[in-house]
Amino acid sequence: MDTFIEVFALQAGFAEMAIRGTTMYWVLYALLRISGRRDLGSLGMADMLVLVLVADAAGNAMSGDSYSMGDGIIVVATIVGWSYLLDRLGYYAPPVRRLLEPQRVCLIRSGRVLASGLKREHITRSELMEQLRLKGIANLAEVERAYLESNGEFSVIRAPRASGDGPSTLDDDDRSD
């Protein structure tokens, strides 16, 4: 029974672990928010490596090299608590949601690519055309609007009665078939 109690005994203290968890949550949140949203939709090998390394570094910083289960539970509960609180605040207070989540960015309007949107999100024309092809779009005339959404996904609103006379989505493809 004493061993069980020792495993859950706090080594660093409740306040220290809550402060560590809160600090790391907000630092990582800010860094991920600044780094852009486009990578959220899909994780490449380099992205996965960064995620694992960040998790390991953050875990060490949050725990303060503590091996106590109690300390770990406090840190995890703090992180989950912040996530829950921000989710609820975003739902009930739209100004908070607008502050915490990026706005969607228009990339195509009436079949014309908006260079300002691509530049803002660091998306190449080839990447945009790839996303359109994945959505079944053969040429730009088929697109009334295309957006990069706040979650990093691309959304497309098809043009009514598209003539198919616009530029092909294959025009700027760097790869050969």
Automatic annotation (TrEMBL):
Pfam families: DUF421
Domain YetF C-terminal span(s) in chain numbering: 96-161
Protein's UniProt keywords contain Membrane: yes
Region (Disordered): 158-177
Top-level taxon of the source organism: Bacteria
Keyword terms of this UniProt record: Cell membrane, Membrane, Transmembrane, Transmembrane helix
Protein name in the entry: YetF domain-containing protein
